[in-house]
Amino acid sequence: MTGNPMRFRSTRGSQQRLGFSEALWRGLAEDGGLYVPETWPLFSVSDFDGAESLAEVGERLLAPFVEGDPLATQIGAIVREAFNFSAPLRQVRGTADDEILTALELSNGPTAAFKDFGARFLAACFQRIRKPDAAPVNILVATSGDTGGAVAAAFHGRSGMAVTVLFPKGLVSPTQQHQLTCWGDNVRAFAVRGTFDECQRLVKEAFGDAALRQHQQLSSANSINLGRLLPQAVYYAATSLAWYRKRDRPLSFIIPSGNLGNAVACLWARQLGLPIGHVVLAHNANRTVPDFLSQGEWLPRASIATLASAMDVGNPSNMERMRDLFPDHVRLCDVVSAISVEDSAIRHRIREDRARFGEVWCPHTAVAAEVWATMSAERRRAEAWCLVSTASPAKFPEVVEPLIEGRVSVPETLARLFDRPSVFEEIDASLEMLKVGLKSR
Left (φ > 0), alpha (ψ -120 to 50) or beta: where does 248 sit? Predict the structure, then answer.
């Protein structure tokens, strides 16, 4: 779109400017900030004429961001490799005629969660960025449940790349834990005696430890990495385009939110000119973001364990990117709102929507469904709403099956993982313990 090489800057004001590949490879900026585009290309709907599939939309959407980068000529192959499964938009059955409610299904990838899109894109990029004779790279990833499994699946077996997954001990579902720990080979898992926020802190501290980085080539696959968010913007672009072409109106999204990577990806697609309306962030009992939007003061806090465990984040790192995009709080609140949902409401929504609509939601999608259900009828009718369905309920049978009084069907990709043994190590939430583990690899 621009014809000029795209550069990426830090959210914290460093003068450093990097190209796409280097920003992905480094993961975190030198000043501890997160990389964002220095400029924003602007698209029109007609720019995507003839582009129907995720890969076709992705190639056009991402082309300006790789302009002038070594990956520019390969972006088509990268998105075709990464987006080889669907993200269908479907009508939710049984809603009122004057209320439009759809669900965007993001659980058709290898690990049955939306994290597959960004993880597979990042792995495809890294495989092409890394020179064959270069030292191995260790991908550090903190996970509240889904990210680690998606990254492990995407990087498993790739030469020259190792993965180290940090997850909070006892705070992910048994199914999620098995997905994090069943890989072996070049994937290693640590159960951290602490919360997700402490896992995320350890990753950032590792990146900031000069001595550790002298001995190991580190990179990140969390949503702090630019290469996770840009591909997620693709499914928002493709979905909003398809809707606009049929209905000639923008689509508004209700997004289950934790570390805010998925939400920022949607806002980036909106910033690029895609026909996206309002964005509602559906949070569990971790109220940091809803309180910030309503009160205007950013007060991170310790995370609270909930049924929607992958969203148990008290200090979401991608708020830096959201505030960078919307430095004016009033403007941010014009576009984005946030609502918090308690566990009791999650349980009620899973039961209610199974009975009313025949839908079986995972706990995270149920948070978004509860937000829609508690909107005023006037607001539900005023906009076309889309629930972002982030994961298969089969990843949370311990929560879902007692509520629906039945079994959840398990996707074949998940079923195959249970044939693999689970192996992990426990560590305290200290950088020294992590360094010992990394050096023993």
Answer: left
